[in-house]
Amino acid sequence: MNYADATADQLLAQQAARESSARTYPRYLPLAIETASGLTVVDVDGNEYYDCLAGAGTLALGHNHPAVVEEMERVLADGRAIHTLDITTPEKERFVDTLFDCLPDELTDTAKVQFCSPAGTDAVEAALKLVRTATGNRPILGFQGGYHGMTGEALSLMGNTGPKESLPGLSSAVHHLPYPYTYRCPFGAGGDECWRTSARYVERVLDDPASGVVSPAGMIFESVQGEGGSVPAPAPWLREIRRLTDEHDVPLIADEIQTGLGRTGELFGFEHADIVPDVVTVSKAVGGGLPLAVVVYDEELDGWEPGAHAGTFRGNQLAMAAGTVTMRHVLDNDLDAHAAAMGERLRERLEDTAAISEAVGDVRGRGLMLGVEFVDPAGEPGPQGHYPPDGDLAERVQAETFDRGLIVETGGRDGATARFLPPLVVSPRQVDDIAELFHRSVRAAIDADERAEVLA
Q1: Same domain (yes/no): 322, 350
Q2: Which residue blocks in 146-264 are alpha helix, DSSP H?
């Protein structure tokens, strides 16, 4: 094939013929990207799109940010080592300095760092191994709706049972606790009573010798469940979880792989609750768009022997350089505060869209990590009076947004939530454009459903 003249359809057909059935995004976002800058990607056919997926939240500064590109060019021009295993370099030490500048002093004053293989899921694997080594215990406490990666131990933590059904033999040493998903509270409670009941449940599991849960090695949480549908944890609940894990000597792991580095309106999602976890997993944005994953943890947990956790590509120097510039740009430009403001602006517009139909059930999230859950008004309401999730409608909305030049992801229960993860540098005008494109797409999808019902 002459790739210089190939169309998107030709490239997608070749991809489908050669790549595995596990590929995901091309099934719903059928484009072949040619160029990208900031929030915009352009496909090989010349079509432009606002990218509100942004590498699943990886591109904090958008595509090809000039400061990041310049830094990578400098590293290459200076003849710096690109791959060093875990041998240190000036680039690596600058990266750690800047990462620690982003984290609370209460953590970094006694922190150690473990560089992992470059995917976030390996940081989770390392964190689990760390706390198990430190405590001598095996069980891990996770939460319903959680997502922590697709490798073995990380996959066992997933709240969605679908991907795990065909994989017998996954770790059984995981106990899934109820997450305070206020819109669909696992206890059928409303408002603050949802998180209060969830916290009481966790407390009883830890206190009750008949709970069936032996002494846990650790607890892992997301301050906003991303793949779970952009579900934010109430700050009082997070404070209760920190209190309970402190009282029971259970190391608390904050999975900040998607929420970290300003996305939620704070540098790290756990900071909304003014807590300090024992372990933090970071990836995605801290690599500046390149693969990098790190675990930061309290030195009291550092019971590892040399080589206890390794990985060939943990020495990705180009990613460390790109990540340092990205973190510094976020800090120097208060992009966490900007994300909070732009997230509020986008959320207000999404609420306007929700008002047009009962089929738009919930608008939620934090900062620039937002979700819109679609529901089926013809279905049977649940205990809280909410209609069941409608993944088919969410898929049609996603298709409508794509046709209008907007890329969004879907996730959550039944894939019924449209998710927004735009770069943190999004401008007010771009937020308004994104909201308008989404509004038109939702209206078009709902109008098509109503016409179909009339014809039926």
Answers
A1: no
A2: 152-156, 192-207, 235-247
Q: Which of 295, 310, 332 is the last residue of a domain?
A: 332
Range of the domain at 383: 8-64+335-455
Sign, CA dihedral 326-329-334-338, equals negative
Answer yes or no: is 3 within a domain.
no
**What CATH number is associated with residue 428?**
3.90.1150.10
CA 384 to chain centroid: 27
Phi then psi dihedrals of residue 215, to 5 deg? -50, 120
Other C-beta atoms closer than 10 Å to the C-beta of 400 total: 20
- Beta-carbon count within 10 A of 20 CB: 5
Q: 241 and 109 in one domain?
A: yes
List, in order, residues 6 or more apart from 8 with CB less than 8 Å away.
Answer: 30, 31, 32, 43, 44, 45, 47
The DSSP secondary structure of 346-383, one letter per residue, reads: HHHHHHHHHTT-TTEEEEEEETTEEEEEEB-TTS---T
Tell how strand 369-374 and strand 417-420 pair up: antiparallel
The phi-psi region of residue 62 (left if phi > 0; otherwise alpha if psi is between -120 and 50; otherwise beta) is left
pTM listed for this prediction: 0.95
Q: Is 1 within the bounds of a domain?
A: no
Among residues 281, 309, 332, the one where a domain terminates is 332
pLDDT tens readout for residues 178-230: 999 999 999 998 899 999 999 999 999 999 988 888 899 999 999 999 999 99
